[in-house]
Sequence to fold (323 residues):
Amino acid sequence: MRAAVLTTPNTPITFIDDHPEPTVDEGEELIDVTACGVCHSDLHVADGEVPSPMPLIMGHEVTGVHAELGPVMVYAPWGCRTCEQCDAGLEMLCPDAAEAGIFADGGYAERMKVPDRRYLASLGDLDPVSAAPLACGGLTAYRAVGHGIDDLRSVSASGKQARAVVIGAGGLGQFGIRYLRLLTDAHITAVDLSPDKQATARDIGAHEAVGPDADIEPADVIIDFLGAEATLTLAAQKVRRRGRVVVVGLYGGRIPWGFGAVPHEARLQSSVWGSRSQLDELLDLAHREDITQAVEALPLDQAQTAHDRLRSGDLKGRLVLTT
Ligand SMILES: [Zn+2]
Ligand SMILES: [Zn+2]
Fold:
């Protein structure tokens, strides 16, 4: 089969015409890959920042076709399927996870082995190319927003104006703005340095979009899609008492926490990818509402070009490799 393979970190991805087919044992599944989104985490794998096994077929935003199930999306945070987190359906929190495309071969190939049928979500009639980024980018933002939904709805139910702030209006932040707009009555403020991204944020539903120095009102829920020290500091300053800050971005910022450092009873939490049931919820939402973003499709043999473009920021939408 055709496959794009990373043989060693920090070397170009090699396109191979006659890569061996995956071997599938009892209980495992095989899909024909249709499309695979290219995500920032793939760059971390390519850079050797993740202890991935090599050689590796990357790619964790995968749509394809299964012989019996038809069109599917792969749930990529594969866990051990035996621990407490996996039992609770939270495989993305499994301490022994082997995520597709990161610790096991993924979707930069014509075919892909999936270790269990539970990881195949029905795609229905969604477009497999534009839907592919929902598997990681879309799902990650969905879980992050999900942490704050009940908070926002209960403020609205009390007759007050609920307020949500999204920090970072890039790909994930844009998903977050759409979900907040569709699922809550909250006033949504987007914070981003870029005037272009501020304009996009307004186009897709933010009530206001401002730079980081703007004087914004305190919020019930703040979702930080960057996670830098400056953005976490802003979130801790702008969250209301009993409000919630959700950090998704992996910039690795650190802020002080404790009495006096954050408002009373404010809750600070991280959010990781999404659960298997949340993927079904998200695909259900995608059938009802237009939540996909613009994508640019490139053929599989241009996987390295896709990585170079993502790294340079030379993008008009999410990049998706197609077979
Ligand atoms: Zn587990
Ligand atoms: Zn990803």
